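Hi, here's the filled form for the chain we discussed.

Project: internal
Contact: R.S.
Residues: 291
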Amino acid sequence: LAIAQAMDRHDTIGIDLVAMVVDDLVVCGAEPLFVSDYIACGRVVPERIADIVTGIAAGCVQSGAALVGGETAEHADLMRPDDYDVAATAVGIVEADGVLGPERVRAGDLVVAMGSSGLHSNGYVLARRVLLQHAGLDLTAPLPEADDSAPSLGELLLTPTRIYALDCLALAAASEVHAFAHITGGGLAGNLARVIPAGMVAVLDRRTWALPELVSTIGSLGPVALPELERTFNCGVGMVAVLPEPALGSTMKLLAQRNVPAWVAGSVELRPDSAGDSERGSVRLNGDYAI
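And the returned structure, exactly as it came back:
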């Protein structure tokens, strides 16, 4: 929101908002049905509110959900005139026998990563602190090592979150999927661990994908250590599917047809040190990111 306000561009954050709620729904196999939004502001500027709602409507179209209404509240005594905040609720439906999750995951399952479009909606406090406050970069200029024709830093930071809901639903309908993980706050390991059963570990190979330039720049300018980057940002992976190996061919074909960048990032293994472990499973990342 701070970047959108600084750039005076408000038509993308609504997509981010919808993405965060519908893709949290779809990970259990639920189809998003409708979304309701709430906008709080210090002063109602009709053009700005229209831009925000345009983004929310676009996100609903991308996810197949209906925007059924919402509320815009003006808080002149609580917020500065140009400040605003947004929130949303989504409702979805899934049959009881179609719920996905760790109960379905088995040793030997493959972990298929789906590429992110950017930072999505997480890690912006750290990104602003490093890029703007510490390094003093200009939002209207490209990254330091980028070509002059490259998108500006502000444009990169406002790249809309990729919405995976319809892709995941299509995949679950056409192939066997055991679980999905939406990669948000906590990073790849923190979110994937939620769908790995106790006694198992998802072993991922960083060499199967490259760290996005924006994340790499934050790391070098901070400097920010790799473990902190991986806890804060999606690092190029926005959604993960866990599925049996026989389903890999149909999975990759469908995702390619839907223009979703995807690759096998690792697999699920039994954890030899798991005797008596009643907690959820774990995730281990090996190797160095591809160049």
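Let me know if anything looks off before we file it.
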